[in-house]
Write a structure and sequence with these properties.
The complex is a heterodimer. Chain A is α/β, with parallel strands linked by helices. Chain A is built from twelve helices and 14 strands. Chain B is α/β, with parallel strands linked by helices. Chain B has a single domain (5-314), classed as Rossmann fold. Chain B has a six-stranded parallel β-sheet with strand order 2-1-3-4-8-7, sandwiched between helices. In chain B, strands 5-6 form a two-stranded antiparallel sheet. In chain B, helix 1 (5-30) packs antiparallel against helix 11, helix 1 crosses helix 12 (281-304) and helix 2 (45-52) packs parallel to helix 3.
């Protein structure tokens, strides 16, 4: 065990994967000597060389397509796209190309690719650097969608994503990069599709992921002081989804709140609610709730961004409301 | 690199196989046997000439008019027809149009429906060859309709700036569906764009299979030697509409079509072989009979093949 940040844990996962497997390489803008916007690739070029830690032009179509093409011929690329907001520039290469090869070729070709992108608000970065677009990716069969909330999970999920034969969209919350916690040493994987019970409780299930997990834990702590015990489930990956874990928790608590940072409409919370209603309707003591952002772009000033992030405050009210 | 009489006869066979296949596929599509066909009739010299000198491990990425590449790299005729019929006996098992199929064992990495999207993908295959230290070269085929997409610019820029082992191969048949080149492409020239990327560029008579072969070999040799990409522009013309889905192409005239038919790549090589004394007319006619049988057997195979069972639709979304 060592205490390290989420960014350092991701860096360690890269080092382990690249030492163990010469097929693994990484590419992206300013990821070499500069070490990436979030320093996730810091020091990698010095150890693994310019061929395996590739600084690319600002050219998302080219680098995403090239990562897919390299994966098709046996490499295992890790692509960094600095902000998930930029995926619109290369979306065809993600959802029409990467996601479809296994299906199109009846499994003769595969795309073992990890696309790392930073998501999330909280730093006053504005409309083009702060979005949470995970729901887009979950709507594309063929993509896996991973969103770690802790340093230990960041490392273990990254190693699992690199091992996976499918394209994995790996969304890192930029507010979490500097968060430090204990991280196990050496190689280990956290399987995709296994949720984590971040806190146990018997009154309310709060399903969350990525940057919303700390909000859920904080609300759970505050609620506990008022005598309400929340169970906080960190999904870790949205595709595959650990539906069994969600259902098991709701069967225990009888109450469901899904809390995510992304906008409410079309958010993945709707999917979680629909699955629970389909499988555990009779266990529900009250209507399931979504606590998520208003349907607005993410504003720039911290004063306005706080409106978008009002979910944090509204979550505790929702917990109080659902048990009353 | 120079072609022997035996090579020329091999090339003749490949050209003719593509032509007889194209004729039959077009006829069957028009007869309503399958949904649609993007014919490559008239352009046979390109797949035949490009693929002839490739190593089996060299990769090709194809266009929606790329069935000639499948035929010349060894996908059985029957499987391709089965693909057109979307039957279970083709490599996609009816999941995806055969025009973009993959046969990784034969160096065919697939194509894509969005014209030009293959250019970055092919660039990535070349990047991987560089990283993996192999001597494999990638051929990225695309049409003149691709050259105004961002994928063209971004893909070629990346390949050029990293000097990757790839040949960017433009099949210029002068029309993107109904859109004439001069109405769509600023500067009026595709090959002049090579200069902007600092690449050598070569314009080739795309109806001369020997010229196509030789230009490809020069570009492949450069790529293998670590000297980077080449942009090749092959001038050619498709004899059939963009597809059989009722396309009307007002800009293409009968006079233009007849002028290009006079430059038929197959007749040219046939005359060359006979005039040089490499083959008799009878010998070449016998090849034709043999190929017609092969194509007919392929159609028969496809007609008899079953459709995939419904559960196939649910498989291999993930590996």
């Amino acid at each position: 065990m060592a205490r390290m940040s989420y960014a350092e844990a991701l860096n360690e996962a890269h080092c382990i994967a690249m030492r163990d497997d010469s097929r693994v390489f990484t590419l992206g803008e300013d990821i070499g000597e500069y070490g990436g916007i979030y320093r996730v690739t810091k020091g990698l070029q010095a150890e693994f060389g310019e061929q395996r830690v590739l600084d690319t032009p600002i050219s998302e179509i080219a680098i995403t397509g090239a990562a897919v093409g390299a994966a098709l011929v046996g490499s295992r690329p890790i692509l960094e796209i600095g902000f998930v907001d930029f995926v619109g520039t290369c979306w065809d290469q993600v959802f029409n190309q990467a996601a479809k090869f296994s299906y199109m070729t009846d499994g003769r070709a595969s795309v073992p690719l990890v696309i790392r992108m930073a998501c999330g608000a909280g730093l006053g970065y504005g409309v083009h650097h702060s979005q949470s677009l995970e729901a887009w990716f979950t709507h594309v069969p063929g993509l896996k969608v991973v969103m770690p909330a802790t340093p230990a999970d960041a490392k273990g999920l990254m190693l699992a994503a690199i091992d996976d034969p499918n394209p994995v969209v790996f969304l890192e919350h930029k507010f979490l990069y500097e968060v430090k916690d204990e991280v196990p040493d050496g190689r280990y994987t956290v399987p995709l599709g296994k949720a984590r019970v971040a806190r146990e409780g018997g009154d309310v299930t709060i399903v969350s992921w990525s940057g919303a997990v700390p909000w859920a834990l904080k609300a759970a702590e505050q609620a506990a002081a008022e005598g309400i015990e929340c169970e906080v489930l960190d999904l870790r990956s949205l595709v595959p989804l650990d539906e069994d874990a969600i259902v098991a928790s709701v069967e225990k608590t009888g109450r469901l709140i899904v809390c995510h940072e992304a906008c409410t409409t079309g958010g993945f919370g709707a999917e979680v609610v629909a699955r629970v209603v389909a499988r555990a309707f009779d266990f529900l003591d009250s209507e399931p709730l979504r606590v998520a952002a208003p349907d607005i772009p993410v504003p720039n000033s911290l004063a306005l961004e706080a409106v978008y992030l009002g979910t944090r405050e509204r979550l505790l009210e929702a917990v109080r409301g659902i048990v009353s | 690199m120079s072609l022997s009489p035996r090579d020329l006869k091999q090339l003749f066979r490949r050209l003719l196989l593509i032509r007889r296949f194209e004729e039959e596929a077009f006829r069957l599509a028009v007869a309503g046997k399958f949904a649609n066909y993007h014919g490559g009739m008239g352009q046979e010299a390109i797949p035949a000439g490009v693929c002839y000198g490739l190593k089996p491990t060299d990769n090709t990425m194809i266009t929606h008019r790329g069935l000639g590449v499948l035929l010349t790299r060894g996908v059985p005729v029957g499987e391709i027809f089965a693909g057109l019929y979307a039957k279970a006996s083709c490599p996609t098992r009816g999941r995806h149009p055969i025009f973009h199929m993959a046969a990784p064992d034969l160096g065919i990495l697939a194509g894509t429906t969005m014209v030009g999207s293959v250019i970055p993908l092919a660039t990535g295959a070349a990047l991987a060859a560089r990283i993996q230290g192999t001597s494999d070269v990638t051929i990225s085929f695309f049409g003149d309709g691709s050259v105004n997409r961002g994928d063209f610019h971004e893909g070629i820029n990346l390949g050029a700036v990293r000097k990757l082992p790839i040949v960017y191969f433009c099949e210029n048949n002068f029309y993107a569906k109904s859109m004439p080149l001069e109405a769509s492409t600023a500067g009026g020239s595709i090959i002049s764009r090579a200069q902007g990327y600092g690449l050598p560029g070569e314009v080739v008579d795309g109806n001369d299979v020997v010229a196509v072969y030789e230009a490809t070999q020069r570009a492949v040799a450069r790529a293998r030697a670590g000297e980077g990409p080449t942009l090749i522009e092959c001038l050619t013309y498709r004899w059939t509409p963009h597809s059989t889905a009722g396309d009307r192409e007002f800009a293409r005239t009968d006079e233009e079509l007849e002028a290009w038919k006079a430059k038929c790549p197959i007749l040219r090589l046939r005359q060359q072989l006979i005039e040089a004394g490499h083959a008799s007319a009878e010998e070449l006619d016998a090849v034709d009979v043999e190929i017609r049988h092969e194509v007919a057997a392929g159609v028969e195979f496809a007609e008899a093949a079953p459709y995939a069972a419904p559960e196939v639709a649910l498989e291999n979304v993930y590996l």
